[in-house]
Give the backbone structure.
Amino acid sequence: MSSESGTPGLPAPPPTGTSALPAGTYDGDTVFVTGGGTGLGKAIAIEFARLGASIVVASRSSDHLAAGRAAIEAVGAEVEVVECDIRDAEAVGAAFDAAEDRFGLPRVLVNNAAANFPSPAEDLSPNAWRTVVDITLNGTFLVSREFARRHLAAGSPASIVNVGASYAWTGGPGFAHSAAAKAGVKNLVETLAVEWGPFGIQVNGLVPGLFPHEDMTDDIREGLEQAGGPMDGHADRQPALRVGERRELGWAATFLASPYARFISGHTLVVDGANWQRRTLANPPITTVRDQLGRGAFLLED
């Protein structure tokens, strides 16, 4: 991708199938990925699988579990799928029981599952707020807690990677529910890294930028298309002059949980080509979230 001025932007990554770490880095390891059957969670799981890991995909959706199984089997790795609502502590415990029965205790946990949709804050119902916070923040904690308790009891080292969002730092107009929850997830990274570090458990965060994929929800896809046209029309809106390739996020996750990152803990790595740090010399006119979403004036219901 090049701009009209000839500025090249950040180079494209190596091709699909290339690994960022030595072959076999995760031989004998099991990686437990929540929401690993679609989108970025699936992309992360695939890169661990390419490096020798056995994968456990956890999801509430049978369709997503089937998609996750097919994707991992396609790269020749062993996979187990477990139906799990991460808001339910008992269901989380049962999912880890199933993982242990198949592969033994997973050494790596990737907390990828989350809930999100755009809405003005004043339009959010109490239930919508609770649902997003419950899945994104409470679910991340419950899965992390179950994983850590098993390793603490076993006296074994482990690694947790929490998938976050850049609006944990900046706020997220139109995403008050998700931004608040992701701020909590970022804080969990920093808190749990200190608490569990003495026991050999590292905890890090991973924040994706714009990584277009076929599993994007319709509301997110439509919002991006309204803002910038087709997905490839967003390239010149990034400092990198391109969007991310899913394997790049997978490579970052495999590094954070690898033996080569043992002294990295409590850190959140942003993989977005510096997009979240972008600023303009002069701010554009404000367009309210309601206008951006085509909601019209707010009216109190009787």
